[in-house]
Every structure is written in C-alpha cells, then in structure tokens.
C-alpha cells in the first residue's frame, strides 16, 4: 500500500509540479500558459475509501495551481486547472453514470479539449488561478473514479 501511495503522489503531484517548473523557464512572458488536470470529485463531500488518497493528490494540484498563478502572474503566465467529470473513454465505468446527469450523457473528450484550447489562447489572458469544473452539471459525490485508482494500483503491482 505504501508503494501505491508514493506512486500516486509521484504521478499526480510531483510530475506536474516539476513539469510546470521546467516549462515556466521557457514559456513566453507574457503569454505562457500552464494547464493542470484534477477531478470534479475533489468537491465531493463523500468518496469511497479507495479514492480518498487519489482525490487528495488532485486537491494538491488545485492548490499548487493557485500558488503558481500568483508566482508566475507577474510574468504574464497564466496557470489554471481543469476538473473534468466522467468522460466517455475506454477505461470509464459507464453503468449508472448518465442517470444523475440532466443531459443524460457522459462528457466527450471534445467537451474538455475545447476548454483547454480556450485557456491556452490569448483570449484567456485574464483567467488565472482558477479551478474550472467541466462536468455536465454533475456535482457532489455522485461518482467515483474507482477505475483510475484500480488502474494505478495494478500498475504499481507490476
């Protein structure tokens, strides 16, 4: 279990932080953009026990994003975090996830990509330090990224 927790921290906290540090030194100033990814589930008031640590690491990225936005803002570099909800992808458990969503569908990769493209554009120069939920009105603790946690667990076992 300890190895698993270190692995999740390395993937979800250390790697994005070190990549942002390296990128900040070569990004255009002004005009550079850093965009992190988290999860809409960080706002959930209840989560399954196997998702707790995963979501804690995602919450850490949200805080890092706000701190870096302040640190890099003077150079005209924006830093934001995207918090997607369930997206229709091969690894996503689909069962029961559309019933709680008013649009009766999972998100599509293009739903996320269009926001990332906007945040990377000049039009988003005044948006920084934000955690942007893209989840089709899904709020709270309706879903859990069990499949992400299980997949990460399998990768550390090998």
UniProtKB/TrEMBL annotation:
Record InterPro entries: NAD(P)-bd_dom_sf (IPR036291), SDR_fam (IPR002347)
UniProt cross-references to SUPFAM superfamilies, sorted A to Z: NAD(P)-binding Rossmann-fold domains (SSF51735)
Organism: Hypsizygus marmoreus
Gene Ontology molecular function, alphabetical: oxidoreductase activity, acting on CH-OH group of donors
Family: Belongs to the short-chain dehydrogenases/reductases (SDR) family.
Keywords attached to this entry: Oxidoreductase
Keyword Oxidoreductase assigned: yes
Keyword Cytoplasm belongs to the record: no
Gene3D superfamilies the record matches: NAD(P)-binding Rossmann-like Domain
PANTHER family referenced in this protein's UniProt entry, alphabetically: NADPH-DEPENDENT ALDEHYDE REDUCTASE-LIKE PROTEIN, CHLOROPLASTIC-RELATED, RE15974P
Name of protein: Short-chain type dehydrogenase/reductase
